[in-house]
Amino acid sequence: MIASTPNQTPVPIASVTKIMTAYLVLKAHPLQPGEDGPILTMNAQDVSDYQNDLSNGYSILKVKQGEQLTEIQLLEGLMLPSGDNIASTLGSWASGTEDAFVAKMNDIAQSLGMTKTHYADASQKSLKSTLDANAEILDQVRSEF
To answer: What is the pLDDT of residues 48-88, one digit of tens each?
Structure first.
């Protein structure tokens, strides 16, 4: 385990959620070193998510309808500028819908013993998402990748 403290109180997760998002995307669509992965074409929903997140002041990665991005480019956009809109794109791609993806996030959190963790979306926009400790997911990612 990386770190833990007793008597932790769940708090809004911020960008730690994106670690779980990246983890599940890579579990669903693994990449070998040097691979870029499949190409995804940005659609109207991706552009709408970008525009909504931009207008709400969230962290974003600009996308245009018809733009083609590889899995690795999207993962970089998720983690480096902390693109909230990209979390939605990747979650929908990996599981069909963002809601289905979030259900998987919560299932994995429970299986890792993160009993006070609850994800409400694939990024961190919702204040309904809470985290009791992020060490478990970091340990899991480190052990698998």
So the answer is: 999 999 999 999 999 999 999 999 999 999 999 999 999 99
Q: What is the CA radius of gyration of the chain?
A: 15
Query: Does the reported pTM lie above 0.90?
Result: no
Instruction: Provide the 10 A C-beta neighbour count for residue 89.
Output: 25
Residues 83-106: what's their mean pLDDT? Answer: 96
Residue for token digits 């990996």? Answer: 94
For Cα atoms 2, 141, 96, give the angle at the middle one, nearest 5 degrees.
140
CATH T-level assignment (fold) for domain 11-115+133-144: Beta-lactamase (3.40.710)
pLDDT-based confidence at 2, cuts 50/70/90? very low
* Residue that has been written with the tokens 């002041």 in this structure: 57
Active site includes 123? no
59, 82, 95, 123: the active-site residue: 82
Q: Is 15 an annotated catalytic residue?
A: yes
Catalytic annotation on 82? yes
Please measure the distance between the N-terminal and C-terminal CA atoms of the chain and give it in whole angstroms: 16
- Using CA atoms, how far apart are residues 47 and 132, in angstroms rounded to an integer? 33
Q: Which amino acid is at 91?
A: G
